[in-house]
């Protein structure tokens, strides 16, 4: 069986002011938090990290090459649509997702109340059973830019395998 592993990382900065038109969306879940992320797309950095991990496994560059932030058609883009496009690239190479392991790093907001729904939604978007997706949340114990509550970051690792 052909196996391919990939890693992705993304970070987005918090906007100074909350913009109700740009709610905080992580792993496809809109969180009831009064914080917005600065982004050309909807700012869902969890899905961006997962897209990059899949692209990494495929040897297909990064999300910025496929969906440039200079392209007006991606303004406010629903990141789940970008993920669906990346999954179709995997399918075209005869590869399907085996599992994904995701770590979201945020000093704020506290993600524990949302982790289960984020995991559930991520599995749904990836088209796999929930036990194929793990989603962890951590802080940086107040250290660095994430600890100063300047933004949210995410690491993702995926394993793809031949789907026949
Ligand atoms: Mg991003």
Q: What percentage of amino acids are in beta strands?
A: 25-35%
Mean pLDDT score, rounded? 96
Shape: globular
Taking Cα atoms only, what radius of gyration do you get, to the nearest Å? 15 Å
Q: Enumerate how many helices there are, as a single number.
A: 5
Give the strand tally.
6
Could you list the spans in which at least 5 consecutive residues all have pLDDT below 50?
none
Q: Strand pairing plus helix content: what structural class?
A: alpha+beta
The CATH class designation is: Alpha Beta
Q: In the CATH scheme, what's the topology name? A: 60s Ribosomal Protein L30, Chain: A
Which H/E pattern describes the elements? Answer: EEEHHHEHEHE
CATH H-tier superfamily: 2-C-methyl-D-erythritol 2,4-cyclodiphosphate synthase
Layout of helices and strands:
Blueprint: E1 3-13, E2 25-26, E3 29-30, H1 45-58, H2 63-66, H3 79-92, E4 95-105, H4 115-126, E5 133-138, H5 144-147, E6 151-162
Parallel strand pairs: 4-5
Antiparallel strand pairs: 1-6, 2-3, 4-6
Helix pairs in contact: 1-3
Bound molecules: magnesium ion (MG).
């Amino acid at each position: 069986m052909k196996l391919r592993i990939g890693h992705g990382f993304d970070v987005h900065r918090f906007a100074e002011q909350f913009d109700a038109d740009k709610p905080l969306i992580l792993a496809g879940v809109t969180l009831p938090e009064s914080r917005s992320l600065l982004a050309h797309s909807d700012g869902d950095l969890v899905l961006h990290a997962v897209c990059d991990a899949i692209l990494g496994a495929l040897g297909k560059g990064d999300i910025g090459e496929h969906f440039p932030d200079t392209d007006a058609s991606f303004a406010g883009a629903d990141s789940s649509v970008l993920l669906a496009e990346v999954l179709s690239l995997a399918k075209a190479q005869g590869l399907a997702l085996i599992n994904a392991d995701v770590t979201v790093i945020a000093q704020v907001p506290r993600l524990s109340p949302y982790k289960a729904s984020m995991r559930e939604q991520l599995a749904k978007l990836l088209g796999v059973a929930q036990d194929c997706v793990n989603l962890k949340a951590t802080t940086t114990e107040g250290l660095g830019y994430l600890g100063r509550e300047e933004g949210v970051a995410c690491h993702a690792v995926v394993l793809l395998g031949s789907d026949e």
